[in-house]
Amino acid sequence: MTQKQWNSVDRYITDLFVPSDPVLDAALQTSAAAGLPPINVTPSQGKLLQLLAQTQKANRILEIGTLGGYSTIWLARALPPDGRLITLENNPKHAEVARANVAHAGLSGIVELRLGPALDTLPQLVAEGCDPFDMIFIDADKAGYPDYFLWSLKLSLIGSLIIADNVIRRGEVVNPDSVDPGARGVRRFHELMAAESRVSATVIQTVGSKGYDGFTIARVIAGQ
Ligand code: SAH
Ligand code: DHB
Ligand code: MG
Question: Which ligand is nearest to the CA of 49?
Fold first, then answer.
């Protein structure tokens, strides 16, 4: 199987099930114009995240890693009018583009972007005693995933869904000697998760226009 085939099948899925949307298209255009890397989730993956948030009947969503707000918009659109999405981003330029995209989507009232390293903003959320999140999407630096998982547990409740992007890394995740900090981070993340009795988890491998990768999906099944 080749990338060309994965692209055509991804297009087939998107043409059928993910009608093009001017607001989401604009978010990608402004992100590209500002020089942000094109590493957002694909349209079919954005739809998957939205379906999961809807199935979860999420009122509160936490996203770690905003970029230009593309996945943010997909997720925030799954929320009721009184819902809340908090998204964490370290890069001021990315944050500026994302804030404009979220505003253009009419979602500024329910989306809050917190600028700073997630390892600062996550403890802040806990210290503030913020309400737990029904769904947490981990998509920032992959070396940080083990820590993001531990903070996610503190910010969730029984039934919360924790999803992580980019956990297969073209198969590099099975290389125990990998020198890629991302692959090493994801391996440690999975080890922590597998040893954690408070979650029930699995990983789905994916192919598509972003190549060969995958999502970890975990449900919190017991309290702290
Ligand atoms: N979720 C986005 C893509 C996120 S890309 C989408 O699918 O549309 C990863 C983002 O994480 C980048 O914008 C990067 O700046 C941010 N990031 C990297 N390290 C971070 C950190 N330590 N804290 C917060 N954000 C970080
Ligand atoms: C990268 C980050 C992502 O979240 C992603 O989905 C793809 C690539 C990256 O940092 O290269
Ligand atoms: Mg990603």
Answer: 1
The DSSP element (H or E) to which 3 belongs, if any, is helix 3-17
Rounded to whole angstroms, the Cα distance separating 136 from 159 reads: 12
User: What domains sit in the chain, N to C, each tagged with a CATH number?
Assistant: 3-220 (3.40.50.150)
CA of residue 52 to ligand 3 center, whole Å: 16
Nearest CA to ligand 2 atom 11: 39
| Spatial CB neighbours of 35, under 8 Å, sequence gap ≥ 6 | 93
Q: Distance between CA 176 and CA 182 in Å, rounded? A: 12
If pLDDT is split at 50, 70 and 90, which confidence band does 187 have? very high
Judge if the beta carbon of residue 39 lies within 6 A of ligand 1: yes
Point out the ligand nearest to the CA of residue 137: 1
Out of 39, 66, 97, mutate this one to test ligand 1's pocket (max ligand atoms within 8 Å of CB): namely 66
User: What region, left, alpha or beta, does residue 36 occupy, with left being phi > 0 and alpha being psi -120 to 50 degrees?
Assistant: beta
Ligand 2: which residue has its CA nearest to atom 9?
39
Q: What is the per-residue pLDDT across 76-131, written as a single tens digit (0 to 9) for each? A: 999 999 999 999 999 999 999 999 999 999 999 999 999 999 999 999 999 999 99
- CB under 8 Å to 42, separation ≥6 — which residues? 10, 14, 208, 209, 210
